[in-house]
Amino acid sequence: MERERSEPTSEPINGNFSYLATAREQRPSLGKMLFAAERFLLAKIMQAFGNPPVHVVLWNGLEIPNHNGDTVARILIRDRDALFKLFLNHELNFGELYSAKRIEVQGDLLDFLEAVFRVWPLPTQDKAIDRLLAPFIDIRNNTITGSRHNIQHHYDIGNDFYKLWLDERMLYTCAYFPHPGASLEDAQIAKMDHVCRKLGLRPGDSVVEAGCGWGALAMHMAKYYGVTVRAYNISREQITHARERAHAEGLDGKIEFIEDDYRNVKGKFDAFVSVGMLEHVGTDHYRELGDVIDRSLKDEGRGLIHTIGLNYPRPMDAWAERHIFPGANPPSLAQMMQIFEPHDFSVLDVENLRLHYAKTLEHWLQRYEDNAEQVTRMFDEQFVLAWRLYLAGSLTSFKTGTLQLFQVTFSRASNNRIPWTRQYLYEPGYQPVGGTDEHM
């Protein structure tokens, strides 16, 4: 993959200084005092980042070496105010300054991000602060009103934008690669089959899907597994696309796409599935989601939740939460149990597809870069930089283990129609079940 790289130049920035100049140049006494203050702030910033192996070049041409020259990239800070902003809140302001071109990464962006993520101290979650701020940031919360605002911010920016870099079926979730060389299109089909097999779908089953994206999974389930699907989504752009495509594929009567919140799900179903929605639910609403699942599943009902996750609870990256994914809150496995335990759901299987998501993002980022000029015409250069950082940062997060991808299957505790082994996942058509039932 051709990766985003910024090479040094010798053009002066802000006056007669070239940023290739070094600290050995002579400066007046006041300049030395200012430089000492700048070095102090920069040392604190680098410490907050975990002292990654990068060099920093200031707006006046002064270069601050780090790690004895063994570095993966250089960071150009273009003005003093940008330095102060980094000092005040590096997690939030780095992305904002990068998008505004007040910070420049000179070198391979992915190499830089990996070097930073490998050493960046992970934060902890301060629930007390969250509770104090909650009344003032309701739009960011995942109430019915807040969720609609949050989803519109990310998903309703235009289907044409997502078509540039997603696969042809418009799946915006982790693919499943049977082998690393599989195409993105094949891997997304394999993901949908993987989900359907885990659910043990049988012709005639009824399925409810919470958060259906552009409808690809619902159509796949109906078309290839003979089930009926009721799919809920609050993104108008996505629902409109899904209805048009289902009609074009002759699936009217097999799928009902409903523009509504998952909390308003109605009916009884054989299976519940949610792929890529739990990140938007918020841990404070997990009990509500569990209530929805409980009232929706039949006695032998089973379910699957596919979600970005964490090894332990902590906040979402501040910049991404503000500018890309408002309201996002990936859970730990322990937090996910808040969905299952109150209703005595039995967890049947947990699979971590972290590296599959890293591979998915490699494809997305490459396609995004291939269409960067068109994205610029759609929006502007700042948008292009922000989404480049988001995609590259997400890729790096899965590669380094900062983020996980959990698939959790579950059923009611008394349900014995469950697989004896995992063989059913890898052999199409082979679905042995437990209890007194015969092999299917």
Automatic annotation (TrEMBL):
Annotated keywords: Lipid metabolism, Methyltransferase, S-adenosyl-L-methionine, Transferase
Record SUPFAM superfamilies: S-adenosyl-L-methionine-dependent methyltransferases
Enzymatic class: transferase
InterPro entries: CFA/CMAS, CMAS, DUF7884, SAM-dependent_MTases_sf
UniProt-listed GO biological process terms: lipid biosynthetic process; methylation
Its EC number(s): 2.1.1.79
GO MF terms, alphabetically ordered: cyclopropane-fatty-acyl-phospholipid synthase activity
Limits of the DUF7884 domain: 42-118
Protein family (similarity comment): Belongs to the CFA/CMAS family.
Xref: PANTHER family: CYCLOPROPANE-FATTY-ACYL-PHOSPHOLIPID SYNTHASE (PTHR43667)
Listed name of the protein: Cyclopropane-fatty-acyl-phospholipid synthase
Phylogenetic classification of the source organism: unclassified sequences, metagenomes, ecological metagenomes
